[in-house]
Specification:
N-(1-d-carboxylethyl)-l-norvaline Dehydrogenase, domain 2, 8 helices, eight-stranded mixed beta sheet, 8 strands, 2 domains, homodimer, Rossmann fold
Chain lengths: ~260, ~260
């Protein structure tokens, strides 16, 4: 049985609590948050606290808090030589106070407040400073049903960067699609099946193989017409840059 | 019963044939392609031909061919005053020879050669020059099980442009994610659940509401670190431009 204390009350903390609380061989023995109100709804399921001095002894302390408070919170913990991990894609593992055994459990997924999460769709990247901490963190991630991957600091950084491209930037392209369709009083809804199919396609096929469209086939007439339609200067630049990028990937010359 | 002749042998033509061939109240009476070999496997299911002069009389002729041959092929058809439609997002409806009744059936989806298509996930945008042609094309699209939407030329153009953003450009962001992860010997596979979740999220929620990440929360430290990691100049530019775009959408100042 792995005993766990969770610290923080955001989306990641809440989904981790729910996942770990029903996992076999794991016991969430306490949930800390600076402000008790946020975790009060869970008080019948777990011991809650807002006082770091009352933290119980556990096998692992999970700091699922904002990037900018990880270092401070880890320093304030009133104990040492226990396993303390954060859940961030971008924060250095060495930002955790060196009085602790240190690790990272980085869930490579986007969490919404209300949507239920199935942890089998949440790959968990595990990083540790000392090798001995790894098996316990792996067991913890597996108990959630997550795929796991051991990574080093560079790999975690790069996965977080790639996640910004495929998640935040992709979502911004959806947003631009929304703006463009609304500009002619048509419906973003018409694009939704295409959005889903585009994401499904690369589950089976490389993005390289999946590419189609005017940039790929160097259809200059369509590209020119599209640039003419794009009055928004920023959308115009994004169109040009991504068209160039596709053409470089597929061995065409610059526009 | 609507009688249909399909012209062309690409992905769209083939999926339309398969969909219409099993649709109620539709009879695909003939399939034309310049080169018989491509459609020969279907000769037991439908009359096939490579000779325009043998085309049968039908209620609608669907030109599912490359954009650049639509005009020529429509001129070569040895009849007039019948309903002839193309399936392109970008070709002008007036590119069809004016001797015909003219229309467009634009399926707003990406078609793969081998993957089966469920037409309920293929919105079909319908454009016609004369109003009388519309009900028949709508009936045809509905017989496939597709959602349908009547559009004008501007709306179709704009939908095609938006489709390039959410399909081709998004796929290029996946490709960049692939390149970035491989550069540190980690696995693109780890990003696949995130890619799918990002697409699923906007099925229920606007892209505006779905946005998260360093650009949205103006996390300058992470943005700077990411730009430092991106040695590839083009990826660097794309990062900056899409970060700016997110910040404009969400009311932050330029970097």
């Amino acid at each position: 049985m792995i005993s766990v204390v969770i610290l923080g009350a955001g989306n990641v903390a809440t989904h981790l609590f729910k996942g770990l609380n029903k996992a076999k061989d794991v016991s969430v023995i306490q949930w800390y948050n600076r402000n008790l109100e946020a975790i009060n709804p869970y008080k019948n399921l777990v011991d809650i606290t807002s006082d770091l001095n009352t933290l119980k002894k556990a096998d692992v302390y999970i700091l699922a808090v904002s990037d900018d408070v990880i270092a401070t919170l880890s320093s304030k913990l009133p104990f040492d030589n226990r396993l303390v991990v954060h859940t961030s894609g971008s924060v250095n593992i060495h930002d955790l106070d060196k009085k602790h055994k240190r690790g990272v459990l980085y869930p490579l997924q986007t969490f919404s407040k209300h949507a239920e999460i199935d942890f089998k769709n949440v790959p968990i990247c595990i990083e540790t400073i000392d090798k001995k901490s790894y098996p316990l963190l792996k067991e913890l991630a597996l108990s959630l049903g997550s795929p796991t991957k051991r990574v080093n600091s560079n790999q975690r950084r790069v996965l977080h960067l790639a996640a910004v491209f495929v998640n935040n930037f992709t979502n911004q392209l959806y947003r631009i699609g929304h703006e463009i369709t609304e500009s002619e009083s048509t419906e973003f809804d018409l694009l939704k099946p295409l959005i889903l199919e585009t994401a499904k396609k690369v589950q089976e096929m490389s993005p390289y193989m999946a590419q189609t469209g005017p940039a790929k086939r160097n259809d200059k007439k369509t590209i020119k017409a599209h640039l003419g339609l794009l009055q928004n200067q920023e959308h115009n630049e994004i169109y040009k840059l991504l068209t160039d990028s596709i053409q470089h990937t597929h061995g065409r010359k610059k526009l």
